Amino acid sequence: MAALGHSYGQSYEERTVVRNGGKGNPCQQLGCSLLVSALGAVMFWGSLYMIGCNEKSSVCISRALIAASESHTPVSCEGGEGSSGDAVFFSCKIEDVSMPAWTPSDFGAGWLKGAFNTKAVKLDQKVEMYQCREIESTRTEKENDKDVRITTYTYKKEWSGTVIESNQFKAWGNTEAKRALESGCGRDFRENPSFPMESDHRSSDTLYAGAYDLTRHLKSVPVDSPVAIKNDKYKVPRSFARAGKRQAMEANPRRVADDGAAYTYDEFIDYYGDRADQMWAKANPVDSKEVAADDGSVVVRGNMVQTCSALFIGCVRISYFESAAKHVSHLAALNSDGRTTRPWVAPASWMCSTNEASNQVDLFSVGRSDPYTIVADAQAANNASMWLFRFVGIVLTIVGVQCFLQPIQTIADLVDQFCDWFKFIPILGWGLDFLGNVVSGTVGCAITLVSLGIGLPASFFVLSVAWCIMRPLIGIPMVLVALAGIAYTIKAMVEYAKIGKEKRQNKKTA
Question: 161-219: per-residue pLDDT in tens?
Fold first, then answer.
């Protein structure tokens, strides 16, 4: 059916009547539910496998970290200590050769000459532009006996580090949406301009700390410290000229053309073409007051320069960030050259072989530290990762069961939709619709309870089995609890199945 829409403020709302909530006919719904059911089976077993692997990996990592903490050798920053393959620890200053001097010219921003000159392992240039964005959202609501899909388009101005493509906006093909666009982004908005410069990254080619070459860990050095920009007058280059003219336009948005009518700067471009800049400079403002020419200067705020004093679409801001790292700490194994390192392999233990990544230690951190702190931080990160994967695995296991039982929910929803057909009957139609909703909701609750009853004990059982293998004293009691939970779930399901069977038999004999 045709969509109906209206605008309010900076948003445009389009309403479309759909059948069955857009779910398709009964055959399509059943087919989709069967596909979801197959996906649920894969998700259930895959999640259980992930839980087991996570427990094994976490235990192996913990054992390797403990072994490294107990067997490492502290070495000096001058080098010449430790043997090849031994676990060593050092905390050393980053050498000057790995800290080049950076200026804006390294990013092609020569017009910011003198803004800063800093030495760092890395430096980032972040470029953002003030642009118009269209935000689309969709929801479905019931209105009387109809399912209505409501699509909302909201227009707003915001900073973005990438070009927002505006040529596909809904507003260009819909009058009501155009009104919302004008409210959110201005009546004179035509398009988001292209970036006159791009975000970029600069890095040292090497990372030397004392006598050691840690270049392989260069990617681990963060870039998060703002670079202070000297507060001075900087002239915007010609590539920013359009933004400068837009700033003048914002100060006095309309000027009088040869035909006596008042136009915006964009309209001057449409009217005069290549002569637009020349004619705009000669034209009088609508209030007959001359507007001072934009001097092309920028605003400096901390580590950021902005090409406009008042925000308008096309305004650009450039920020700079450097790596504040001056010192690094490292625990790993030395190579035979005594300068480079590699991951240290912990001795093999029960279920933890030397070929697995979880049995290797290669710790790197920025700043001064000691071996016990760096190991403790790694243990904390390992524990956090273990609990995160546990939680995700358990949730996916429960969702897997729920997806597997989705065909039952679909059948209940079809019953609900069938009852909706009788809404036109006074009183009785309302009652049938209500009963249909009750059936659909009750089945949904039952499926959720069954999913919890199967997913939770199954997940806990896999956890306990993993701990039985890795740490039997803790794992055996966990297995007993898990088996009790599984037994309770199975018993409850058998009892409900018995009740259902008895009801069917009673109906046959009746």
Answer: 999 999 999 999 998 999 899 888 887 788 898 898 999 999 999 999 999 999 999 99
SS3 of residue 359 by DSSP: helix
Cβ atoms of residues 7 and 154 within 8 Å: no
Domains of the chain by residue range:
23-57+386-509, 97-252+291-322
| pLDDT of 159 over the 80 cut | yes
Please indicate whether residue 137 or residue 143 has the higher confidence score (pLDDT). Answer: 137
pLDDT at 149 over 90: no
Distances (CA, A) of 423 to 144, 347, 431, 440: 9, 72, 8, 17
What distance in Å separates the CA atoms of residue 378 and residue 362, rounded to the nearest whole number?
10
Q: Tell me the C-alpha distance between 390 and 403, whole Å.
A: 20
**Predicted pLDDT at 243:** 44
Residue 61, CB half-sphere, CA atoms under 13 Å: how many? Answer: 22
Secondary structure of residue 101 in the 3-state scheme? strand
Sign of CA dihedral 242, 247, 252, 253: positive
Q: What DSSP line would sit under 286-352, residue for residue? A: TTS-PPPPP--B-EEETTEEES-SS--TT-EEEEEEE----EEEEEEEE-TTSSBEEPEEPPPBTTB
Q: Which residues, at least 6 apart from 75, have a Cβ–Cβ distance to it below 8 Å? A: 81, 82, 88, 89, 90, 334
Locus of tokens 């996570």: 54
pLDDT of 267 over the 60 cut: yes
